Each structure stands twice: as C-alpha cells, then as structure tokens.
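ingest -> validate -> predict -> emit
validate: passed (alphabet ok, no gaps, 209 aa)
predict: started
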Amino acid sequence: MELTLESDGYSVRLVGAGKEGIAKAASERPELVILDLGLPDIDGVEVLRKIREWSEVPVLVLSVRDAESDIVACLDAGADDYLTKPFRTGELLARVRNALRHRPSQQDTAVFTVHDLQIDLTARTVKKGKDIVRLTATEYALLALFVRNAGRVLTHNFILEQVWGPAFSDETQYTRVYVGQLRKKIEDDPSNPKIILTESGIGYRLSSE
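emit:
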C-alpha cells in the first residue's frame, strides 16, 4: 500500500500499532488516516474514537471484517468510509481521492453544488437548475446534514439522532420515507438516484461528484 500510494503522488507515514498511530496523528496532523482494525495493541475502532475526540481528519477504515454490524460500528464511531479486504488498488485510490476531496466538511457559509442542485446553507435555499425547490423543515434539515457530510457514508442511526434526536435512533423507517421524499424533489429519476446514494443495509451518502 505504501508503494501504491507513493507512486500515485502521496506522502506516506507508516505506523504499526494503535497507540503510536494516535500519537503520530496528533503530532503530524495528516490529511488522511487509513486505519486497519486488526492492530497488535488496541482495536482500530478505539483508535478511531480517540482521534475523533480532537480531529475531523478523514478516516478510511480497512478490514477483513465484513459483517454489517462491524461496518456500522465504525461509521457510527466517525469513520468516513470502509473498505473490506481484499480490495483492488484502483478502488483504494478512488476512496482516498474521495476522502481528500471533501475535507473538512462543508461549512455553513458554503454554497454546495452537486449535479444541477445548488444548496445555500446561509440563505437556506435549494435550487434545481433555475427553479426553487420547496422543502419542509425536516427535509431541509436532512439535506443540510448530507451537505455538511458530502461524500461520507451516514448510518441510519447517525441520521436519526442528528435530525430527529436520540429517542428516534431505532426508527429507520423515518430515514427511508424522508430520503424518498427528498429524492422526488431533487433527483431527475428518483428510482435511479444520482445525488443521494444508498449504502445497502447501512445508510446513505451524498454524491461528491
């Protein structure tokens, strides 16, 4: 991986254990952390939680663990993306580019554009082409959450807690219903979405293209 990344123009620092990785991330402030879960001293999820206490650096998790529960646990702990082993070099580089393209998350003063959709978080307006898109308060809150986390996989639980509150963390039908309503208003073809993408069994991701 070091050779692959360096041949693609990245500067790489290798660390072999979790505690050392936390210290290195704090001292060198990398633009991206690629984190394996199987570490010799502490679990990678614990490393992720420690880093998230003070940093919003993009974190790409690599692991042989492919169970949905493991993926969701990492994303809920703050990972930006999750790649299961084995993986192809091209996919790794694409995930790295995606993570770097959207660091840090969109600021509230930003005007975010994806395809023909424009979201102004300051004016709280949404346009599709030249037309104003009328959203309910909940629909707008959901879309704004996606914008602030563009390119990042958001789990159902994370979305529910952020938009509806912790008491609704198990009401996954809420996300499906409201994402469906949003798609009808912002997608050219809601049945084949290009803006809000589904991560099967996990949640959703706002396209970063």
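Residues 135-206 form a domain with the Arc Repressor Mutant, subunit A fold (CATH 1.10.10.10).
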